[in-house]
TrEMBL record:
Reactions that this protein is recorded to catalyse: 3',3'-c-di-GMP + H2O = 5'-phosphoguanylyl(3'->5')guanosine + H(+)
Gene3D superfamilies in the cross-refs: 3.30.70.270, EAL domain (3.20.20.450), PAS domain (3.30.450.20)
Domain of life: Bacteria
Enzyme class: hydrolase
GGDEF domain segment(s): 443-577
E.C. number(s) listed in UniProt: 3.1.4.52
Organism (species): Shewanella loihica (strain ATCC BAA-1088 / PV-4)
GO biological process, one term: cellular response to nitric oxide
Domain EAL, chain residue ranges per copy: 586-837
Matching Pfam families: EAL, GGDEF, PAS_4, PAS_9
Annotated PAS domain residues: 163-234, 286-332
Protein name, per record: cyclic-guanylate-specific phosphodiesterase
GO molecular function: cyclic-guanylate-specific phosphodiesterase activity
Named cofactor requirement(s): Mg(2+)
Length: 837
């Protein structure tokens, strides 16, 4: 157990307290405690280095408010007082009821303090103070003996003394200022540099104190430095100041002081040395300046060794990355890797760094939080004297805000500030890209030029603010009608451009024009709660027929738009005149279809189905007809595809089903036999999840049993999604509805799916019936279909039978049923009496 401590700056560095002395101290403390019969609660000896108490005696039977750690804090406070106050009394002091007594080495260096905590009943009398003082004197006497023994050991092992050298000659040879003071503070030794720098001779300096030579303030500063060195027992740097050096130049001087101790351990004085540190100070200031710049920089700084391990970070590193300095020291910068850059990127970076000594560019890194951010990065190689890389210094700045600004600038450059739509510049770039795609994929592209009619009147009547608000609303409505695949841009003023890629047909373009015109159906509200109605003229140009470049298409679409205006506005035109005429008719057809159901323009006719051989009527097929007041009679082959394109086929198909079911229920009520009424079902109807439920509801509302209904589904419709169709047809079959495949032979059926379909009939398409029995191919196909159907236990019906020869062939081939003009054209209900039983 030792009370001595090791310190790099103490003179008594190697002096240790032997165990026997420690035992003596322990006994002395116990004797002190016993002498006062328990009035001392705690005794502790603590070293001046601030370590935990080395030796303590405590009455464990009592609880005291002070802990050992608090006692140490009081002791350290005493040490600071002695060091900071040269005239501090070296007597025991009472600090908050705790008695502290300093212990000194013979050199007057402070060793530690004896700390005593009397209990609450103890009397702080003179006898107690005297006993404590005597105990401390005994302990200090032991320190003197230890020191002298230590010095004697050093003398015994010291090498042969060097030849005597004149001390004055030695110190005069030094440029540093060297002097010595005795214990009274008088200068007893100075070198020639001191005389020159201080501007005084030896006679004016020797045997004089600082008070006699310098001003009171400066003398007090010098005395304080002497005292600190003595009390600490170490070499101290007393001051750094600007002063005259031996060349009388203004320089920075650093003064170091160290106590001089005799072999017996007593203090002899203080030696001081002042050296010129101007260059060192300048370098230090540069380093501090650089450090301050680094630390206060808005950029982050990372320094790595040659192996790439982080050895220091500065500036905004933590603020930018989220990592603290301690978290990254020793780590590789790859902890910041975002994963956005491939191996080739980093290979180029290192090649530039090792070849040119520098790399500069943009890189994406990852913060501690996981967020990825862009940074501007410069990496520089730092070389040693051997021209080998010693360090890498990376300086980086977070450029997220800059990137956002660039993005915003690009948005302003390429977008219309009012509607936020792409402007003419961005439209040109996007259009050229779409044209390249269309050329590569060999598809068509349509460009629609939209001009709001008479918009100048809006600005003139309501002002530009209102006009701008209406234009924003026009852009919103047009965008909703176009959908996501198309592009909408604003050229300026009241002109808009719609780009439709992947055009499948002219009808699809006409349909989109119709939808765009719907954007102007509703009135536009004004701020004063009024409203206005607007129309638009549109021109259409199609790639590649109307032009192969963006400029050509824009010019031709503009030409078509002006032709639409010339035709009365609120109109549209294709650049190609024939397409314009066809599209106009197409739009008329679409408009009429929307109103056909409400205006009772649809009606049903029925064509009988007969059993071959007996000629008995076994059912009727309900066929839809349309008579429009303006357009006249329109063939189902024309309006059914249009209805599918514009999404009306489900509504029309449901109407047909209701009418046919109602007619069948009426016949039953009249006691007439008619077999089954068959109704054609379109593909979109089967794709509805609620279709089976719709059929059941229609039958229930009409009062028609399911066994009187037959649904005809085209072969191509079933093959588009056979698994889904199978499920729907199974549900319909479970209702009791009979199912047949219409137009069989035209849809490339898969026999694998055909055998799994819950169907009852195959209907041979009329294209295979038309030329039999003269056409050998059609004859063979008809026979094959009949044989296939019978193999699958299906009833076979032929449609389009018009001649007795066709009927005779089909009957001979085994066909079960037939329908066609040979038996009857489709008729109105009142014309079917001869076929109803």
């Amino acid at each position: 157990m030792t009370l001595g401590r090791r310190s790099r700056s103490r003179i008594v560095i190697d002096i240790k307290i032997p165990d026997e002395a420690l035992q003596d101290w322990q006994e002395a403390l116990e004797t002190l405690a016993q002498a006062f019969d328990g009035s001392l609660f705690l005794l502790a000896l603590t070293a001046s280095d601030g370590l935990t108490p080395q030796l303590s005696l405590c009455d464990d039977n009592q609880v005291h408010r002070q802990s050992v750690a608090q006692l140490c804090a009081q002791g350290l406070s005493l040490f600071r007082d002695y060091i900071e106050h040269p005239h501090h009394p070296r007597e025991p002091v009472d600090v908050g009821g705790i008695i502290l007594h300093p212990l000194f080495w013979p050199s007057q260096a402070l060793y530690g303090a004896l700390c005593l905590v009397p209990n609450e009943q103890a009397n702080h009398n003179k006898r107690l103070n005297t006993q404590v003082k005597l105990t401390c004197q005994a302990m200090q006497y032991a320190l003197i003996n230890l020191y002298q023994t230590h010095r004697q050991q050093l003398i015994e092992i010291a090498p042969q003394a060097a030849p005597n050298v004149d001390l004055q000659l030695f110190i005069d040879s030094l440029q540093e200022h060297v002097w010595m003071k005795d214990v009274a503070g008088r200068y007893v030794l100075i070198n020639h540099s001191v005389e020159i720098a201080w501007g005084r001779s030896k006679e004016q300096l020797l045997n004089r104190t600082d008070d006699e030579i310098f001003s009171p303030e400066l003398a007090e500063e010098f005395v304080q430095g002497d005292y600190e060195s003595i009390v600490r027992g170490v070499q101290v740097t007393a001051a750094e100041c600007e002063a005259k050096d031996i060349d009388q130049s203004n320089s920075w001087l650093e003064t170091t002081k160290v106590p001089v101790v005799s072999p017996d351990g007593t203090l002899e004085g203080v030696i001081g040395i002042s050296r010129n540190i101007t260059s060192h100070k300048a370098a230090q200031e540069q380093l501090e300046l650089a450090a301050n710049i680094f630390e206060n920089s808005v950029e982050g700084v990372v320094i790595t060794d040659a192996s790439g391990n982080i050895i220091e970070v500065h500036g905004a590193f933590t603020e930018i990355t989220g990592y603290s300095r301690d978290e990254v020291l020793g780590e590789n910068p790859r902890i910041l890797n975002s994963g956005r850059h491939d191996k080739a990127f980093f290979e180029r970076l290192w090649r530039s760094l090792l070849t040119n000594g520098k790399w500069h560019g943009e890189i994406w890194n990852r913060r501690k939080s996981g967020a990825i951010y862009p940074e501007q990065l410069t990496i520089s190689s730092m070389y040693g004297d051997d021209h080998q890389v010693r360090y890498f210094v990376a300086v980086f700045a977070d450029i997220s805000a800059q990137k956002q600004s660039e993005k915003e600038l690009a948005r302003l450059v390429y977008h219309d500030p009012l509607t936020k739509l792409p402007n003419r510049m961005m439209l040109s770039a996007n259009l050229e890209q779409e044209l390249r795609h269309a050329a590569r994929e060999e598809t068509e592209l349509a460009l629609i030029f939209i001009d709001v009619d008479l918009f100048k009147h809006i600005n003139d009547s309501y002002g530009h603010v209102t006009g701008d608000a209406i234009l924003v609303e026009v852009a919103r409505r047009l965008g909703q009608k176009l959908g996501e695949e198309a592009t909408l841009a604003r050229l300026g003023s009241d002109e808009f451009i719609a780009v439709l890629p992947h055009v499948e047909s002219d009808d699809s373009v006409s349909l989109m024009v119709s939808r765009l015109r719907e954007a102007f159906d509703a009135p536009f509200l004004l701020d004063d709660e009024g409203s206005v109605r607007l129309t638009a003229s549109m021109g259409v140009a199609i790639y590649p027929g109307d032009g192969e470049s963006g400029d050509t298409l824009l010019r031709n679409a503009d030409t078509a738009m002006h032709r639409a205006k010339a035709n009365g506005r609120n109109n549209y035109a294709f650049y190609t005149q024939s397409l314009t005429l066809a599209s106009v008719e197409h739009l008329k057809l679409q408009s009429a279809l929307h109103d056909a159901i409400n205006k009772d323009a649809f009606y049903l006719v029925y064509q009988p189905k007969l059993a071959l051989g007996t000629g008995q009527c076994v059912g009727f097929e309900a066929l839809l007809r349309w008579e429009d007041p303006q357009l006249g009679t329109i063939s189902p082959a024309i309006f059914i595809p249009v209805a599918e394109n514009i999404g009306l086929i489900n509504e029309i198909g449901l109407w047909v089903l209701k009418q046919a079911a109602t007619q069948g229920a009426q016949w039953l009520a009249e006691g007439k036999r008619f077999g089954r009424i068959s109704v054609n079902v379109a593909g979109p109807q089967l794709q509805q999840k609620q279709f089976c439920a719709q059929v059941k509801r229609v039958l229930d509302e009409a009062g028609l049993p399911p066994e009187y209904l037959e649904l005809e589904v085209t072969e191509s419709c079933m093959m588009s999604d056979p698994l889904a169709v199978i499920e729907v047809l199974k549900q319909l079959g479970e209702l009791g509805v009979e199912l047949s495949v219409d137009d069989f032979g035209t849809g490339y059926s898969s026999l694998n799916y055909l055998k799994r379909l819950p169907i009852h009939k195959l209907k041979i398409d009329q294209s295979f019936i038309r030329d039999i029995p003269r056409d050998g191919n059609n004859t063979a196909i008809a026979k094959a279909v009949i044989a296939l159907g019978h193999a699958l236990n299906l009833c076979i019906i032929a449609e389009g039978v018009e001649t007795p020869e066709q009927a005779a062939f089909l009957e001979a081939a085994g066909c079960d049923q037939a329908q066609g003009y040979l038996y009857s054209k489709p008729r109105m209900v009142e014309e079917l009496a001869e076929f109803l039983g």
